[in-house]
Amino acid sequence: MAHVSIDNLRKSYDGRSDVLAGLNLDIRDGEFCVLVGPSGCGKSTLLRMLCGLEEISGGQLSIGGQVVNHLPPAERGIAMVFQSYALYPHMNVYKNMAFGLKVAGSSKSEIDERIRHAAAILKIDHLLQRLPRELSGGQRQRVAIGRAIVRKPRLFLFDEPLSNLDAALRVQTRLEIAKLHRQLAATIVYVTHDQVEAMTLGDKIVVMHEGRIQQAGSPLELYQQPQNLFVAGFIGSPKMNFMKGVVTRVDGSGVQVEIGGGLRLLADVDAGGTQVGDAVTLGLRAEQIREDAGVGEGQVLQGVVNLVEHLGEANFLYLTLQGGQDIVVRGDGNRSVEIGQPLTLSADSHAFHVFDADGLALRRRTPGNLQSARRQAA
Amino acid sequence: MKKIRAWQLAILLAPALIIYALFSALPLADTLRLGFYTANDAGVRSFVGLDNYRTILFDPDWSAAFWNAMWNNVKFFCIHMALQNPIGLLLATLFSLKGLRGARTYRTLIFLPTLLSVVIIGFIWQLILSPLWGVGEKLMGLVGLADWFGPWLGQESTALLTLSLISVWQYVGIPMMLIYAALLAVPEEVLEAAHAEGASAMRIFWQIKLPLIYPTLGLVTILTFVANFNAFDLIYSVKGALAGPNYASDLLGTYFYRTFFGYQAQIGSPTMGAAVATLMFLVILGGVGAYFVLVQRRLTRYAL
Amino acid sequence: MTVSATARAPAAPTLVQRSFGQAGHLWVHAVLCLYAVIALFPIALILINSLKTRNAIFEGPMALPTAETLTFSGFQKVLSGTHFLLYFGNSLVVTVGALVLIVLFGAMAAWALSEYRFPGNRLINFFVAIGIMIPIRLGTVSILQLVVALDLINTRTALILVYTAQGLPLAVMILSEFMRQIPGELKDAARCDGVGEITIFFRVILPLLRPAIATVAVFTMIPAWNDLWFPLILAPGEDTRTVTLGVQQFIGQYATDWNSVLAALSMAVIPVLLLYMAFSRQLIRGLTSGAVK
Questions:
Q1: Could you tell me whether strands A32-36 and A187-192 are parallel, antiparallel, or unpaired per DSSP bridges?
Q2: Euclidean distance between CA atoms C148 and C142, whole angstroms
Q3: Per-residue pLDDT for C14 more than 60?
Q4: Surface-to-core class of residue B40, CB atoms within 10 Å of its CB (0-12 exposed, 13-18 middle, 19+ buried)
Q5: Pairing of strands A326-332, A314-321
Q6: Considering only CB atoms, which chain C residues are within 8 Å of A72?
Q7: Most buried one in A55, C37, C61, C181, CB count within 10 A?
């Protein structure tokens, strides 16, 4: 059993202000949990606390029902894959993978069997006698993973394992890690700053910012119902368009917001405590804006194109709206758009997000944009 | 685009090469050459081939002193290898422990003796160990070993050992710093990985840290070798050129000095001095060569 | 497997702490303190006793000087009996002079060797490299002859030249290593601007060498300052005597005058101590960065 229970976990250095403040998180057995956030958000610190490389300043950490606050790493049943792989430079691959088992006192035959098994899974059988410096980056990474696998841990910890690989290798390795997760049926905690990695790999994603958990949930939940401005802006590429405005009407059909330039847009959200006259932020994803009016409800936005990025299957159009707001729209790659060209766009009310003055989201009533979500995950 | 003209290269290289050649390389070569000559009383030099060497190595009047100095030098080196480098290793390892408070202060303080002149150090210890002053005896009394104290510097049996210990005491700083720098280069994550795999501090030291600093240990060894077989200042300032008592502390360096310049009854002889210098050169060359051939090849610098 | 201590160490606990608990940390400090005492005690002893009267030196060697036992007579004797300040000045001139030449000529040569490919590059590199291992003293016989022939006997110039020759090989190696790490873009940008190679060296490269100079200084100035051999052989005269030689001669002469002997030793030690305290950080940084070869 390897569910992880983080209970009001706190971390501070030298009694100064908290680096991590009262975190609460539950990770189910066999779950792939991704900790994601910008640099300095505390995700690596949390991972290291899970591993046992950092002291826990407050709160409780349990793995498999066992409180592990004061246990050294080797007694927690974990194995960590470091960002730089941290292979022992003077030992060949076989010895690298055998080291931890030797420390634990396993028999030679046991060690050999485990290594061969892991090497087969990772396809590094032919590399067992090589030294780390004779391996490519991708191969070293697999050895680092192999070193973790042979320990048969109940919890795997990955610290930004893909950040040192080039782009093509990153995508390939991402798939392999996902495959590995299913093969080993292991509980994994995975740290990354790349939200695409997080969305594609994670069963549960934990977005962190400034030492706090902003939101934890499935990829789709985070995409469709981000709980605050930070999560909304962090998840999804390109970044969600934000437009500041004032509430002009609240009724059964939703919340109407007036943004600059006299433009009033309706958002299909639960008003909650929001009243007319409140300052809010309207959020709209680039992929949910249509390049013309006349389809659907037809809430119309007019703007002028400043820049076009051609990606082949899509265009990213950067426009300035009539009210002065800058937005980005994901357009059809087959259409040709010129700089300076005026465009009429439309978006349906269920595509909008509304965030109150504190940055908290109002609940969207019809967040069903599965098609976009699937495209996003590609 | 790197077009440099020959005369520009010449300007860049000339000053360094000229000074180096003139005051270091050529004199050495010339000394080697001089060892094949002898000078009669009128100062006229004549070629005598290997005669000088035969004299030094085998002639009863000369060889005893030479081999004594050689053997002393070997002992000197062994004592340094046994004490100076392991202590340096220990101190460096302690300094490299993460989170050690005051590490910088310790480093600064412990390195101080290395900075001072060997001459000064030699005198200081001479005073401390002097039976006249009695400080040494008092200090040993503090640990209950007052009876063991003796005029070590003055006794044939203990002079060399004492001087070696003084030299060790002074120069620990060098292996300490070099090894410390090498330990710093070991990536922190590798040590953390080992710790995460359950390795104890001792195991991490012996199985991870130490193998990764073998090249530096080799460097320290060869530097110790060259320095020891060149040693002169300490013996000269404490014991004078005669390296007493009764040549018990004579090293190749002092032997060379005496042979070249003469001392008291012995007349100096540049040609014999040159021969001695050549022999010293061969010893050092032999050691360095052996190191490169036997050791360096096996030591691979692991890409960290 | 041992269980780590429950101490709430604010910083990440050291491996020793994790393995041995709080006690391990104490052991480390104990060993280091002990060795620090061993390292400093003799020097402290000398300094303390240089200020005491002769009787006090013998009767209470480990006691600090009190109002009664305090005396500066040793220092007075040294200062009046010898030209100590002159010796100090000589050492300074020789050491700094050698350093200047070593840095300048060494950088020029290092630049030529590391930056450009030309026939003989490897040979010259090798030629210079062996200078590191081979001790210069072995050539003394011929050096003395040369110095005499150049009429430089008993001059500081002779010492400067010899120490320069001694320090050049290591300096060239350290500086070449350092120069190789200077980003190629800097040099290429200058070349694109049409700047000549020699100008590039003096305007672009030389100013960037400051960190490496600390390393070079440590490895060349300390041996030069502390050297006894060459001052003894090449410049033993009164006018050109260095501190090291001066102290050695003085002590040889006044061996029984403990006051003066201790004062002379102190005077030799104190300037080095002061400089060390002022520059220890740079010095140690210079040592540890240059040593990682």
A1: parallel
A2: 10
A3: no
A4: exposed
A5: antiparallel
A6: 1-4, 18
A7: A55
At residue B277, the 3 state secondary structure works out as: helix
In a mutational test of the A interface, the residue from C8, C14, C19, C20 whose CB has the highest number of chain A CBs within 10 Å is: C8
From the number of C-beta atoms within 10 Å of its C-beta (0-12, 13-18, 19+), residue C286 rates as buried
Tokens for A136?
A: 């490519």
Q: How many domains does chain C have?
A: 2
Determine contact, residues B212/B93, Cβ cutoff 8 Å: no
Q: How far is CA B176 from CA B92, B231, C46, C103, C255, in A?
A: 5, 20, 25, 26, 34
Distance CA A50, CA A41 (A): 16
Residue C30 belongs to domain spanning: 15-73
Helix, strand or coil, per DSSP, at residue A212:
strand
Q: Which residues of chain A have pLDDT under 70?
A: 1, 293-298, 369-378
Q: Global pTM?
A: 0.83
Q: How many CB atoms lie within 10 A of CB B101?
A: 12
If residue A192 lies in a helix (H) or strand (E), which one and from where to where?
strand A187-192
**Where among A183, A203, A230 does a domain terminate?**
A230
Confidence of residue B169 (pLDDT cuts 50, 70, 90): very high
Cα gap A362→A227, rounded to integer Å: 8
Q: Do A172 and A252 fall into the same domain?
A: no
Strand (E) or helix (H) holding A7: strand A4-12
Report the pLDDT value the prediction gives residue B244, as an integer from 0 to 100: 73
Q: Is residue C239's pLDDT more than 90? A: no
pLDDT at C210 over 90: no
Cβ–Cβ gap B180/C164 under 8 Å: no
Average pLDDT, integer, range C63-75: 76
Residue recorded with tokens 């005058």: C257
What residues of chain C lie within 8 A of the CB of B166, using their CB?
A: none
Amino acid at A269: V
Give the Cα separation of B263 and C26 in Å (integer).
Answer: 53
Give the tokens for residue C170.
């290591």
Kindly list the residues from chain A whose CB atom is less than 8 angstroms away from the CB atom of residue B207: 99
Which pLDDT band holds residue B298 (cuts at 50, 70, 90)? low
CB C137 within 8 A of CB C163: no
Does B208 sit within 8 Å of A82, measured CB to CB?
A: no
Distance, C-alpha C24 to centroid of its chain? 35
C1–A contact, CB cutoff 8 A: yes
Cα angle A126, A131, A133 (rounded to 5 degrees) comes to 115
**Could you give the number of structural domains in chain A?**
2
Contact B231, B251 (CB under 8 A): yes
Strands A279-284 and A352-355: antiparallel
For chain B, give the number of residues: 304
Query: Chain A contact for B202, CB < 8 A?
Result: no
Domain termination residue (choose one: A213, A230, A247) = A230
Residues in chain C: 293
Residue A279 sits in a domain whose CATH number is 2.40.50.140
Q: Hey, is the C-beta of B304 within 8 angstroms of any chain A C-beta?
A: yes
Test mutation, B3, B7, B13, B283, chain C, max C CBs within 10 A: B13
Q: How far apart are CA A233 and CA A285, in angstroms?
A: 9
Which CATH architecture group holds B72-249? Orthogonal Bundle (1.10)
Place of tokens 């246990």: A71
Q: Is B100 on the interface with C (CB under 8 A)?
A: yes
| Residue A348 shares a structural domain with residue A276 | yes
pLDDT surpassing 60 at residue C209: yes
C164 and B CB contact within 8 Å: yes
Instruction: Write down the pLDDT at residue C289.
Output: 66
